[in-house]
Every structure is written in C-alpha cells, then in structure tokens.
Amino acid sequence: MPKAGRRRTRGNLVTERGREAKKKKKRADDRPVLLAAFVESKKSQSEAKLDRVYADVVDSATEESSDPPSPLLHRPYIPDELAGRADILAAFREANATYEADIERRSAVLTMDLYSSSSCLSNDRRLLHIREAAKDAVLLAANSIISLSSYLDDEPLNRCCGLWIQRDDKKKTALVLTSAYLIRAKDPSLVRNQRTGEYHRDASVIVHLLDGTTALARFIYLQEHYDLALYEVVVDKPVQLSTFNDNVHSGQDVLRLGRDESLDLRITHGRVEYRFPDHHERCHYMYFSHDELSVSSTTTSKPYSQGSWDRLDECSLHEDGGPIIDLEGKVVGMVISQMKDTFLPSSILHKCLDFWRKLKCIPRAHLGMTFTPIKFLDPICIERMRRKHNIESGLIVEQVSKESNAEKLGIRKGDIIERLNGQYISTTTELEKMLLDIGGDHFPKAKVSNAKLDIRIQIFRATKLCRRARNLTVTVSDCGEDIIEGTCPITVGLWR
C-alpha cells in the first residue's frame, strides 16, 4: 500500500503524538535563555495572568489523619442561674483565659494582619476610578521586583530595587537590572548634583529574594550615562521576568514601585510629566509627578514636612532601580532618582539592553551639549517662533561643553538643532535613541571606544537668525557623558 494512503491507526496516532512531544521538548531545551518581553500593542487586563507556582497538595485523607483540626473555641459565659457559684466562676476565668489566648494567637496569623499596612490604593479615595486596575497591575508586576543591598568592606553602602530581565534555566542563573546608585560612592558634597561619579564595581551585592532568602550577585556591567548596572544571580527556581511597554506619554496614570527592608511593596501613584531638566540631570529623563499625599510606603503615609527630609533621603534608594508601571502591569520606565522623581523610559531601556546583548556594551554618540525641546514650551512661545522664524520643532541648546567640538564649531546657548543626519528632532528622547543608533551602527566597525565620526546637523543660529548645515565630529563611547561648564580664570586686572 502506498505510504500516502496508509490508514492512521490508534497506535500510529499515539506514536506521532509522542514524536511531536519530543520535538517540542527538544525545541524548549535548545532555547534555555529567556528574555524580558518588550511589547507595543496593548492587551486587555483580562488577558494578563500571574504565573503561580504551588507546592504539591497533600492528600486530604492523609492530612486529616496526621493533623486533626484544633477545637473551635467559643466565648465562655456563665448562665444566670449559676452566677453565684464559686466553682463556676473559677472555671469561667480559666476558660476565658484560654479563649483570649487563642484570639491573641490567631490575630498574629498572616490572614488576620489586614490593617497594619496600607498604600495609596487603599487610603486615597481620589484613585477610586483606577483602584481595581491598579491593584491587578501591581500584583502582576510584583514578582519581577526584588531588592538589592551593597557593602564595601562589610559596611553598608546603598540599597536599591531591581528587575529580573533574563534567565537561563539550564545554568540556573538570572540577570538583574538595577540602578547604578547601588554601587555609587557616597560623597556628601556631591550627593546627586553631577551626572557621573565614582562607582565601586568591586562592592559586594546581596540580592534579597522574595522567599526570604538571599544570594550573592556577581557584577556584570555598568553604564554610567544611563545609570544602569547588571548583576548575575544563581537561582534555584525560575524567576518572573519583567514585561516592558515602550509606549509612555505625558499625563498617563502610572505607579512607582519599590520594596522596603521587610520586602513589602512601596506603592506611589503619579502621572508621567515632561519637565525641563535641572543643570545636572540628563536630557532624556522623564518625570514622575505626584501629590505629596500619594507618597506611601507599606504603612499609612503622611506628607513629608521639612523636618522629615532625612527620613526621605534614607528611604529614597529603596525605589531607585524599581519600575514605573502602567495600569496593565507593564514597565514603562525605571526609577533613576526617587529624590528627583526621574525615570528612564522603556524605549531607551529597550535599545540599551539590545545593544548589551549584542555587543556587551552600550555605545552612544556624545554631542557635548544639553537641550530643551521646543515641543514642551508654552504654546505662546511655540507660536511666536513659528510665526516669526518658521521654526516648527527642534532642540534649544542649553549648555555647550567646554572645549568640545560643538563649541569649536560655534554652537552657542540659544541655538536650535533642527535636524540630525537629515532627520527632524522634536524631543530629547528621540535624540537619545538616535545617538544610540549611531553608536550601535558605528561600534561594530570601529571596535574601539572613543572612536570619532562626523554627523550632519542643521542649526538655527539664534543671534544671526539664519540656518546653517554643518558636520559635527562626535565621540562614540560606552562611558558617561559629562558637560563641562566653561570657566575663565582672572589672573590680571581688567578694569582701571
């Protein structure tokens, strides 16, 4: 009989299913490394499910025979007709003491500890319209959020949060993405008032796992420009990886998550906001805007007064490295500085992690300038520029680094960068992704750090009210970029 006409018997069907199962298992074994997911399209909340892991259920008959239920104690009382008897009164006192002890013991079990902790999702009535969605989102993201602490010569250094972003089931290891402030040197004179600082790459880092155990983490990588650090951890059980969403917009409802010393969640509600960065902040930051009343740890929160900033400073690192999540439980950013409410958007994190996996570094083109996007100005200012100078969008130069190629090219504060390599730019986040693309495209060719290349920029000269196209030489580097303020020493008298 020809093979095509062979009848599929029950035995053949079982054999085919067995072969297919083996193929699926082989495909799974060939892909032991799992990565955090980056998504663009939105799914309904009902589609999102928590990965639950249960211990084997004990057979009910065995459980009942080996561990019979304790007797249910009822509140004792003395019937009216026996109220005068001394023996009944003594028995009542003994029974009542047993009853009160049982109540006290049961009040300490985990299911009765209902009111010792609360967050803005329980005590802020202004969040009623998103409370259910927000609770589901927090619980969906929670298993991917861990706490890390660093030590230098056995002395505590810092404490931050982190996100599971990759796991290797064959090697039983996982990667944690966290804030570089975890290993940043403490310098009271600087605190966070400069872009880069000194980092202790050799610091001991402990990961506080959610089951109450700890594990020693191994340093993998540090990126100073984005304040990112990667650590590898040996894990006995699979960990839940974060899911990222590249889409985030101003005014969006989001939640900032962290963990305290007892590993309880810290939850703060806020909205995404665009702001002009401070002098020492990166231009690509986005901001978490919140009411003081919404700031909460796992205990009922109160607004921070001037005298409580020390406590805030002590607690602030607990959320650095933690996620900003949307109402679907997806990560839209990572907290960079809780004290300044800044976060790195997921669209940049996405590119950073892709480059690190491919190149084992995150190369970026350094321009030697900082900017303010025209897009975020008041519409009166935007309309005036459009009406008088035909300026639709672009980045206003705020700072030019001393002795940089930008300074030598004649770019000054107030000039506008309209296009880069032929592409119009409207936000600093767009610019940052372009600088990463330039670094990624150039680095595999050069294979060296601090390589030089030319990019084409279109400049609107603010003082001369004209446009010019120029070639700007930039540096491709894996290091952090510091903008050096121009200073001039006065060594002789200038005035008579």
From TrEMBL:
<dbReference type="InterPro" id="IPR036034">
    <property type="entry name" value="PDZ_sf"/>
</dbReference>
<dbReference type="Pfam" id="PF13365">
    <property type="entry name" value="Trypsin_2"/>
</dbReference>
<dbReference type="GO" id="GO:0006508">
    <property type="term" value="P:proteolysis"/>
</dbReference>
<dbReference type="GO" id="GO:0004252">
    <property type="term" value="F:serine-type endopeptidase activity"/>
</dbReference>
<feature type="domain" description="PDZ">
    <location>
        <begin position="396"/>
        <end position="435"/>
    </location>
</feature>
<feature type="region of interest" description="Disordered">
    <location>
        <begin position="1"/>
        <end position="28"/>
    </location>
</feature>
<protein>
    <recommendedName>
        <fullName>PDZ domain-containing protein</fullName>
    </recommendedName>
</protein>
<dbReference type="InterPro" id="IPR041489">
    <property type="entry name" value="PDZ_6"/>
</dbReference>
<feature type="compositionally biased region" description="Basic residues">
    <location>
        <begin position="1"/>
        <end position="10"/>
    </location>
</feature>
<dbReference type="Pfam" id="PF17820">
    <property type="entry name" value="PDZ_6"/>
</dbReference>
<dbReference type="InterPro" id="IPR009003">
    <property type="entry name" value="Peptidase_S1_PA"/>
</dbReference>
<comment type="similarity">
    <text>Belongs to the peptidase S1C family.</text>
</comment>
<dbReference type="InterPro" id="IPR001940">
    <property type="entry name" value="Peptidase_S1C"/>
</dbReference>
